[in-house]
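Title: [Solved] SDR family NAD(P)-dependent oxidoreductase 3D structure

Original question kept below for reference.
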Amino acid sequence: MTDKKIIVITGAGSGFGKLAAVELARAGHKVYASMRDLAGHSKDKVEDIRSIASSEGIELHPLQLDVREEPSCRSAADFVLAVDGRIDVVINNAAMMMAGLTESFRPEQLAQILDLNAISWLRVNRAFLPAMRRQNKGLLLYVGSGITQIPDPFTGPMRPARRRETFSPKSWALRTAATTSRP
Ligand SMILES: NC(=O)c1ccc[n+]([C@@H]2O[C@H](COP(=O)([O-])OP(=O)(O)OC[C@H]3O[C@@H](n4cnc5c(N)ncnc54)[C@H](OP(=O)(O)O)[C@@H]3O)[C@@H](O)[C@H]2O)c1
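Solution (posted by the thread starter after getting help):
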């Protein structure tokens, strides 16, 4: 394919992130399936991704990236830019689901959920956006959730936490477009 993109997906060891990573690599793109703790917690997922990549001969690579850790986001961006010299697409997918009566969550737990599901994209974007600005090109995507619209009593913390799609990316995109010079 001629329009091969360099793509990073967060939380790509399982679920939609993994599915998207595999399908985009099958479509001819170079995909970094990023995960936290490659050598420990995500070891089996890393082996699975490597096995799919080698059996299908596709450009699918595990990448260390914990979206809750700023240095990890920056290291991931540095690695991709050192290897590929550019980044075309970042897909903010990492999140967690939880269920239970809202009052059963401690405030610290709600803060962690909010951090991961609604705020962590900002760390990821801050790591990759400088390169996109230099390139005058790049695409930042966000996986939201329709659960914010469902009045389910057991997913209370999910509602504010999954409003990532309305949290500010739209205004961020407008500001970014307005402040990035075009050739
Ligand atoms: N499943 C649904 O019905 C549904 C519906 C609508 C939208 N969504 C959205 O789809 C996206 C993917 O969800 P999913 O259903 O595919 O669930 P999933 O399989 O649990 O995927 C979430 C991924 O995020 C990762 N993650 C968690 N904490 C992380 C961290 N600190 N740094 C990096 N990665 C981390 C998880 O990896 P670990 O193993 O390390 O925790 C996991 O691989 C989410 O944004 C979700 O809100 C899902």
